[in-house]
Amino acid sequence: MTRLRPVRTSDGRQLEASHVIAVPADEAWDLLVDTTRWPEWSPTIREVEATDRRIRAGTRGRVRVPGVWLPFRVTHVDQAERRWEWRVVGLPGPGHRVDDLGPDRCRVAFELPLGAAGYAPVCLEALESIAAVLEEPGHDSDDVEDERSEAGVDGNAGTDVDTNA
């Protein structure tokens, strides 16, 4: 079920768009942090050029949306909490989070400042796409683990970068 609700976070009041998905949290996290896969689930991103395939604090790049390329910079990644934040064209973009709800269940959430409420429909559509990608027949979690091993994933736990895109 996809939902949109107001929440209070350490950053103040925000909107949270979320969807519960029947896959392990690590699989959803791997999809969100792999820049080559963003066009698979984002309704606006057509192409990505990034300094890192798997994001980390400091990853820079640009995303192609209809008609224009937009620069981005990942400002925070917390592997343990499965949460990352970024800035797009120097402005805060939606935060991304995956909550573990059990062995084969997780919640994927986008955190939006109240001023970005107009972007909520895009986030809701992205969540539906993420669920479709992860729950499609033939999706194999072993492929995800192989990609992580090949990429040399080391955690990047709790790293911050305080710069603009």
UniProtKB/TrEMBL annotation:
Highest taxon in the source lineage: Archaea
Stored SUPFAM superfamilies: Bet v1-like (SSF55961)
Ranges in a coiled coil: none
Gene3D superfamilies, per the entry: 3.30.530.20
Region (Disordered): 135-165
The protein's name in its UniProt record: Polyketide cyclase / dehydrase and lipid transport
